[in-house]
Amino acid sequence: MLSQRTANLIFIVIILAACAYFAWEAEGFSTSGLLASSGLPSKFFPQLLLGIMAVCAAFIGYLYLVRGAAGGDAGGTVFENKTEARQGILMLPVAAACYVIWRSFGFLPMAIVMGPLSLLAMGVRAPWFYVIVLAMTALVALTFTYGLGIQLI
Amino acid sequence: MFDAAALISAFGLLADPLTMLLLVVGILLGLVIGILPGLGPPIAIALALPFTFHLDTVASMVLLLGIYSAAIYGGSISAIAVGIPGTGAAIATVLDGHNMFKSGRGGEALGFSLTGSIIGGLFSAACLALIAPLLADLAVKFGPREYLAISVFGLIVVVRVAGQSLPKGLLIGALGIFLTTWGLDELNGTERYTFGSYNLYEGLPLVPFLVGLFAMSEVLIGAERVARRIEFSTDSLVVKLPGLKTLAGMKDLILRSSVIGTVIGIIPGEGAAVGAFFAYSEAKRRSKTPEAYGTGIPEGIVAPETANNATVGGALVPTLTLGVPGSPAAAVLLGALLIQGLTPGPKLFSEEPDLMYAIFTGLFLINILMMVIGLVAIRFAAQLIRVPTAVIVPTVMLLSFVGIYSVSNSFFNVGVLLGAGILGYVTRKLGYSIAPLSIGFVLGPILENSLRQSLTIADGSVTEFFDTPIGLTIYAALLLTIFWGPVTSRIKRRMGK
């Protein structure tokens, strides 16, 4: 299984790369007119925070590299087992797909596929779960459409 | 100070049938969500937030406060019945509560938990009513330097208590603040990280971000645990309230836990879980029989349950008077006030006295009604622990999607919800606490504006930052919070040698 050490080190690299990118992006902030000379420049605060984040990330990276842990997670794994990993990771594309379906095809197709897709991602096979989830979907949709008057469909 | 006319007006607002109905609905919803393992008060409030968009301010606050109080209490029911805390605030209750349940004293355990929660809730509501107006009077005099000190205090405290790693807490807290720098600079209108999208001109929206962080990340984590079945006996789930004599014997414990809970609630950033643990360890430390704690004794339930519900009123003190949330749940409540077009802070007391008194009185009512509802509904509500995660996960996800969309008819906000959910999921899986992230996201704008204004006032001099008695007191309190524990333990170690 993916260890906390490896996962955290990858995360740290991403954070450091993101800090560098956003700090560079902040250099391009431009204020026009009289406001430009008033107070601290707009880039000051974001760059200060990015600096703090980078220092913390570097320190956490050092802890994982040298001690193998940061905060009592030595030898720990990100997921308990393969099933949990598959279910958790599969839910991410399901959530993203539902968002895309809603934007592209409307609420109804999204509402219809969200429950069954989630259950499939979670490895649920019992048919009655699908029935209950679809009933709950209908209940939520009806509550918002008729109870609160939201234009969903 | 005390405003009799506003109090009478508040009673009038609360007497509205819809408001009363929402108060009851809030308590029931809070109980239900609190009982379901994993779904705590911030998620409960976050899921109800979109509904408040369609309600007036008093009705929406009453609904959310009912959910907040009842969700904290509800967590103890699953902690006692199945040994799985419904909320983080109920973790300390598991030890003694579940042991009492296993020995056939579940009804007694539930009675102690209910009574402790009510007393803690009422105590903190009284403290809120007394302290908040005084603090608001003082806070009117606050300038940027004082707000900067409070924000730094809140953030550092939450970073310290959230999780086992200080650098991880700092990193995630800074990330939360950094994300608030996106959008137009409030002081000079500069575009920052807008990536050419007009949606980002106002920055990342607070409510979708918080709902994503709490509810969506929990959905994703819940999807991993779908196979776990929960079975338990409901035979001893009839609440047996403790007698007055029993309670009188615990008066010191109850008073101490109420004070601990309220004070910890007031400290920005601390939450119900910290209050419950602190009260539990204090009760154990002061007990003549500390070894009995954890074996199934009433004191081990009363202490954490009194304290965790006492944090509710406490957490509202800085939230309402300063706009600085006292807990992650209070951060989401702050979002509710913003949805209503209100800016939490000292001016709220002079501009909306009716609302303030309605909140104080509403909290009292909620706690009294929680007693009645708790007595009647616990046995039925406890059955909800058996609701399969496979049903909860897609339902909560759909509720989050639709709820956020309904607030502003914006797909961008749904995208933020999704992004925040994935960020929350990844960081939680990697051992980061999302409490500093959420508090950082709420405090970010206050922190940046007060820092920049302070620097302008001080003409670049850092020493000027401390040239304010209130600010200096806050920084001193912060240093005390940080160094008190290590210094005293070092002294004790030396004395021991």
Q: Could you explain how this protein is built, in words?
A:
The complex is a heterodimer of chains A (153) and B (497). With 153 residues, chain A is mostly helical. Chain A has two domains: 4-66; 82-147, no CATH class. In chain A, 69% of the residues lie in helices and 0% in strands. Chain A is built from five helices and no strands. The longest helix of chain A has 24 residues, at 82-105. With 497 residues, chain B is an all-alpha fold. Chain B has one domain (4-466). Chain B contains 20 helices and two strands. Chain B has helices spanning 4-14, 17-35, 41-52, 57-82, 91-102, 106-139, 144-161, 166-179, 206-222, 244-249, 251-266, 272-286, 299-322, 328-339, 347-351, 353-381, 389-408, 411-429, 434-457, 469-496, and strands at residues 183-184, 191-192. In chain B, helix 4 (57-82) packs parallel to helix 16. The longest helix of chain B is centred in the first third of the chain and has 34 residues, at 106-139. Chain B starts with a helix and ends with a helix. The interface between A and B is large, with 75 and 64 residues.
Topology:
The complex is a heterodimer of chains A (153) and B (497).
Chain A: H1 4-26, H2 44-66, H3 82-105, H4 107-121, H5 127-147
Helix pairs in contact in A: 1-2, 3-4, 4-5
Chain B: H1 4-14, H2 17-35, H3 41-52, H4 57-82, H5 91-102, H6 106-139, H7 144-161, H8 166-179, E1 183-184, E2 191-192, H9 206-222, H10 244-249, H11 251-266, H12 272-286, H13 299-322, H14 328-339, H15 347-351, H16 353-381, H17 389-408, H18 411-429, H19 434-457, H20 469-496
Antiparallel strand pairs in B: 1-2
Helix pairs in contact in B: 1-16, 2-3, 2-4, 2-16, 3-4, 3-9, 3-14, 3-17, 4-5, 4-6, 4-13, 4-14, 4-16, 5-6, 5-13, 6-11, 6-13, 6-16, 7-8, 7-19, 7-20, 8-19, 9-14, 9-17, 9-18, 9-19, 11-12, 11-13, 12-13, 13-14, 17-18
